[in-house]
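Question (not urgent): is this output format expected?
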Amino acid sequence: MKTLKRITITIAIAITFGSLTLNAQQDAMYTHYMNNTLVANPGYAGSRDALTVTALHRSQWVDFKGAPITQTLTMHTPLANKHIGIGMSVLNDVVGPIHNTSFYGDFAYILQLTAKSKLALGLSAGMNVLQASLQGIQLDQQDDPTFRDNVSNKVTPNFGFGAYYYRERFYVGVSVPNLLQNSISVTHTVDGNTLVAKEQRHYFIIAGTMLPISDNLAFKPTTYIKVTPAAPIEADVTASFILMKKLLVGAMFRTGDAFGGLVGLDLTDQFHIGYSYDWSYGLKSFKYNQGSHEIVLRYDFIFFDKKRIRSPRYF
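Got this back:
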């Protein structure tokens, strides 16, 4: 159990304070990234021609003590002139003793390139609120000064940029959700030592297409590529089939991390529900967990383009 505790602590600290000893992926991961695009790219705001609300919950590495638990809530809509999209996103991410909450507003300017294609340039701005209950961690050496004081409500502002090109059956986007590499410092009450961590800048590429096979069957491949300096490039590749224009069944693979499956169902023209399960591989610690579960709910409250009711958005 001591080994398991060390693994839990190492994962939590490495994810949040990656710059202390290494550069690591810090942003939360999602299997339903294709339904959670606004979190990765502000240019997505307003692209569904509807007031859209999406909620996602992810329980990662079930039965692994201190494993990540993530929730996101996003809302976005185009404005009346259809050249502007606005949105907001809230993220709650817990990893062991580390609790990070983010609040962001999104703005997109939408260019009509051709009759069937658009390019949106997006900006986001907001803040991250970090809390870390370091004093409650059970250590082999309880006098370790690194864990002497908790981190309480450390607020760091940030902003991001994204470009999002899309047609009815294809999209591609590039983004940098957090341009600032904020430092986080804590002055210890006893000896004055300061723990300094640094947020890492992430670069994201998203893409997907819809390929009709027959009237009741279509193939939907998508990908989500994450690049962080001094860390391995990580890519999600998903292959899904859509049956009867309502039911989605697919498989996913995340390089160096996991593979699994996902399903989705359009209960109505406005309401979509999805579920995924993925299993991590490659590290000995993963024998202690029962995989990762994720559920997503999306609702289009108001359609601004009435044609979308008859011809649904695929992304």
